[in-house]
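JOB MANIFEST
job_type = single_chain_structure
chain_count = 1
residues = 257
[input]
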Amino acid sequence: MISGFLAAIAFLTRLPVGRLRGFGPEEVARSARWFPLVGALLGGISVAVLRLCVPIFPPLVIAVLIAGVGVLLTGAMHQDGLADTADGFGGGGTREDVLRIMRDHAIGSYGGVALVLVLALKIATVAALIDGYDGHDGHRALTALLLAPILGRWSAVLLSATQPYARPPSPDAPSSAGSLTRFVGRNELIIATALAVAIAVPFDRWRGSAALVLVAVASAGWAWWCRRRIGGITGDTVGTGVEMSECLVLLLFTALH
């Protein structure tokens, strides 16, 4: 368990646990069962930033700091996938065009707009939640900050375990690019789902349950769209699913604010 958890941390974050040893593609894929726990770690750091900063800074500044810390901890991994996916899906006509554009790491207009909108949405929703932190809505702000990264990483497991990899095998592609879809199976999905439910529901029974259902439905819809456009998923579309799920959780808690 410890080795798998460290592999999950090394894959999803820039925390230096990967320096202890090397993790192969199969080990990284099987560590997907612990992805929600990595999300809990990231969410816990966001909560710590909130608690430290709320006596000093206004909500908008704290929201920007939380967003910035999240990007630093993950190395903008999911934001990169979001930008590549937006460029590919926005600018590509055929499946081959979409995959070719997504492989180009240069950010185009679609990707730039998508990044700005998603970051702005996250900052706005987090600021709105923090605005009631000192009152009766304090628990809701903490729960949203914790659940958003947990359910975002759970969506990555859900997509990887149920969808085929869109790209053909290539020796030039990174070994981890298709490893999740090749090796993540039912066991990883069951354990990751159990962890997500065990954390989300006790923290906020009906809102946590609603967030789980919302992310599941959105992930299913995103998977359908990816299969229609490119025949499956890629690392970029999985990252987009993570960002989409986080935004939906934050939007849900903000709407119920």
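[summary]
The chain is about 75% helix and 0% strand.
The first helix runs from residue 2 to 12.
exit_status = 0
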